Amino acid sequence: MAENTKIEWADHTFNPWMGCTKVSPACDNCYAADMMDTRYGRVRWGAGESRVRTKDWSKPRKWNRDTPGAFVFCASLADVFDNEVPPEWRADLFALIRETPNLTWLLLTKRIGNVLAMTSGIEGSPTFLPKNVAIGATMANQKEYDRDRIKLAHVTDRREVAFTFGSFEPLLGPVNLDHNAPDWVIVGGESGPNARPMNLDWARSLKRQCADLGRVFNFKQVGGRKSDKGGHTLDGETHFERPMVPA
Ligand code: SF4
Prior knowledge:
By secondary structure, this protein is α/β, with parallel strands linked by helices. It is built from six helices and ten strands; from the N terminus they run E-E-H-E-H-E-H-E-H-E-H-E-E-H-E-E.
């Protein structure tokens, strides 16, 4: 994902594999792609390039024992619902998620239209998705929201999930929500040397709309090109709220 490695709205980050293809304006300054190009060189980004599976899958089991209730962001260096990921890898990931019921797994994707198809027919079940998954879509502007909010709602019509969330980060324009808005709205400006500016009024508007619609609002960062990323407050207030997880 384009976000930096410290994900303030989760407690842990787990990467089952690495590699992806840019599919959205929100991907333009993808942190993971830049990091692989400039520092790690372990994966080549793009269509037709191999995704690389990570070796150590033991940490989530430890978190499940030691930090019950924790939120796990999966994956920061890939997209779980990428078409070029072998389906068996996703099945292995879902098995791990089922093995760790004390954790809530945040699966954020820029390919929300793939979720239903990619969670059908696994292990003989037509509606398989572990219940301790929260499913999220990145929607960086009104066009993406208009296209993807219904797809996100369809996932919850057909799959039982902990909650839905929308990552409005990087927020690239004003967004008008409606009753299909996700349960949890995460807003943030882009950071890094090529950061595109976020108008704070766009974030203020989303905060007001969340209050009106009864959605949980989380403000991550102002963003910007400076190393302090512009701070983590909106008009002097922090908003690190999280949604309730069903028992
Ligand atoms: S979907 Fe996420 S990981 Fe993939 S290119 Fe876009 S920002 Fe990067």
